[in-house]
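Section 3.1: Structural characterization of target chains.
Under the original work plan, the team committed to producing a structural model for every single-chain target entering the pipeline before any wet-lab resources were allocated. The record below documents one such target. The sequence was received from the expression subgroup and is listed exactly as submitted; it comprises 190 residues.
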Amino acid sequence: MSKALTDTLQTIQDQSEGDSITFEELVEALNSRGFGALLIGPSLIAVMPTGAIPGIPSLCAILIIIIAVQMVMGRSYPWIPQRLKNISFDRKKYMNAINTSKPYTEWIDSFFHERLKFLTQDSAQRVVALLCVFLALAMIPLELVPFAAAFPAATILLFGLSLSVHDGLIASIGFGLMAISIFIVPILLN
């Protein structure tokens, strides 16, 4: 059984040190798990209570855009700007959020299986990456509405999970959630 979500959270915690976690540490911890995992990290941070911290959803959105554009271009290893690498968030708050959410992430992980793989391979990955760019762009203005950025971030999270475990069913749920987002985002911004 795949534990993509729980393992991703644990990888970030295990491969970081000190009082804070930098985005560089986040990328290094997740790089071995592929671009899907690199989408999971920042989208999960934006969905969790840490997404209510001012500036975090926008920073996560910028990281998602950088990663997703590179996926569209077909890069094999992500490039992250130096200025973004040095941005950090509190490690203790992150660990508390992990401990609180771990039973839920383990339950969610029990639903992942390799299926409908055609929705998570090559050209489909590039389409998903392009959709993630648009969703991340929506996260930036939604940061002004408390927890509103979590909606597009949740869709990106589903896409990242689907790519990590090659679960096309999760990708198709992400496509459905994206369609709903198209109607909800304008309402939240008004």
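The chain has a mean pLDDT of 80.
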